[in-house]
Design goal:
single chain; globular; two-stranded antiparallel sheet; 1 helix; alpha+beta; 77 residues
Length: 77
């Protein structure tokens, strides 16, 4: 599957699919961690997916969006 619409944000439906895939990825493909560089090559976003909490970060600051009931404000400020 390929999507070349890099110049626009995710639709609500795409966001729901993304979160469903992310949950599935975390459940089945992340052993200890996954490190990625994504987005624009000149202004990348660095993503860390880990089974461990980041040192010094309180667990309460993490959000757990439910893929079936997500709104954009659930995942970022």
């Amino acid at each position: 599957m390929r999507n070349d619409r890099h110049d626009e944000p995710l639709s609500d439906e795409e966001l729901v699919l993304f979160l469903q895939y992310l949950h599935r990825f975390a459940d089945h493909d992340v052993d200890q961690f996954a490190l990625m560089e994504v987005g624009d090559a000149e202004y990348p976003c660095y993503v860390t997916i880990s089974r461990a909490l980041e040192p010094g970060i309180d667990r309460a600051v993490y959000r757990r969006p439910e893929p079936d009931r997500v709104v954009l404000s659930d995942i970022h400020d």
